[in-house]
């Protein structure tokens, strides 16, 4: 389900950056286009700054220079992202490990979710309260949508049909991230083998932190349902993992169960 299907006022903004699209949906009934535009300009500036720092496709980015062996001082937020990557590597028992990426350190599997949360913080500072930021499929949701009381209803796409929804989850002041092979092919690598991840076709994670949601979804594509050994030990987190034709769900956002995946 998308926000445009919900009742009530909706203001949207879109920015092309990182070779993809970042979008904003605002549901604040008492805001104005002028206020949303001012907040969005600050978000746009942050998105392009993040691209200049973290892009592995730009030779002049800080991360690209680190990958090339640079030893210069880095920005504070690069150190923050490195710390978050270390946190995710520890929590996933090494299933998420950006230091094992081809070409050197690559935090791309965490940065989009981290950036969505950064944008949400900026929007909140501008006075917005009910909105969602979609950073290429990693969402930060704040407040409620369309007069609802249970958060933002976010649809999880079928791994074989992006127009079909296999589940809908309410996200209230939290994050949701999906990783898999349906949209970008075998882009997730297994840190242990260096080859394509074989654990799951798709994994969606719901929880309180965008950076970790992004990293955990990537890690579950590596481990599949065997990731329950580490994932279910994380309080407050939920996951929906597709292996073959079976979807397995854990955590408070879903009924803990395994079910057949409808075509």
Salient structural properties:
single chain; alpha+beta; T-fold; 9-stranded antiparallel sheet; two-stranded antiparallel sheet; 11 strands
List the helices and strands and how they pair.
Layout (H helix, E strand, L loop, with lengths): L10 E7 L2 E7 L6 H22 L7 H6 L8 H16 L16 H18 L5 E5 L2 E5 L9 E7 L2 E11 L2 E7 L21 E6 L2 H14 L4 H4 L6 E6 L2 E5 L6 E4 L3
Antiparallel strand pairs: 1-2, 2-3, 3-4, 4-7, 5-6, 7-8, 8-9, 9-10, 10-11
Helix pairs in contact: 1-4, 3-5, 4-5
Q: Any idea what the shape is? A: globular
The tally of helices reads 6
CATH homologous superfamily designation = ApbE-like domains
CATH topology: T-fold
Per CATH, the architecture is: Roll
Strand order, largest beta sheet: 1-2-3-4-7-8-9-10-11
Q: What is the quaternary state of this protein?
A: single chain
Termini, distance in Å? 18 Å
CATH C-level label: Alpha Beta
Count the E strands: 11
Work out the strand percent. Answer: 25-35%
Number of domains as seen in the coordinates = 1
Give the integer mean of the pLDDT values: 90
Q: Which spans of ≥5 residues are poorly predicted at pLDDT below 50? A: none
